[in-house]
Amino acid sequence: MADELKGQLGCCMTRALKCVRQHIASKKRDLPFQSDILTRLLDHNPCKKVKDVLYFSTKRMPPYYRYCLTATRRNQTVEMVSWQKCVRKLYGKYDKEANARKRAIHAFREEISCSPKMCAAREAVAGQRCKGCDKKAKLAVDHDEIPFAQILDEFLEQEQRKLSETILDYTSKPHLLKSRALASKWVKWHDERAVLIGLCRTCNSSKGSGGYRHKV
User: What is the residue range of 73's domain?
Assistant: First the structure.
C-alpha cells in the first residue's frame, strides 16, 4: 500500500510534497471535499491515526486562524491534519526527536510573544520604517545582535535542559511550557537579553538567525 501511494505521489519526498500541496490547493476553501490520496496518506500520520473520515476541507483554525487542512469524522469531530508530517513518515524522513525540538522551540516563542519587552517593541515599531531596507511597511519585531536561538540555547544551558526533553502543555492552543515556573524564568531571561528591532516581512525572512544554529 505504501509503495502504491508513493508511485502516485512521486519517487521522492520533494515531489510528493509538491503533489499533495497542489492537490489541496486545487480544492475550494471552506468547502468539503473527498480525497482518496489524503485518506490513504492519513494512515501514515506519525502523531495519531485519524480514522472514519467523512470529508476534508481547508479552513481557518485557531489560534492563528490560518488556513489548515482538516478532516471531519462521521461523528462530526474535526481534526487538523499535518499532511507534511504524513508525507515525511511515508518516505521515512520523519524524525520524532527533531519534531519534539521544533514543538518546544515554538512553545518557547509563544511564551515570550506577549512579554513586557515584546509588547513595548510592537508599540515602538508601529508606523516606523524597516530597519533593514528603510521602507514604510507593516513591521514584525525581530531579534537583533543576539538571535532568538542563541538566547534560548544559553537559557537551556543554564537550566541544564534539552529542547527535546522539554515538557509541553498540549491542552493549550498554542502549546506552552508545562512548568509555569520555567516559563516565568524564560520570559525574564529573554527580556533582559533581547535587543528588538522592526523589520518588514522580506528583511525578516532573509535575516533569519544570521547563520546561528541551535546547539541543543
Answer: 2-90
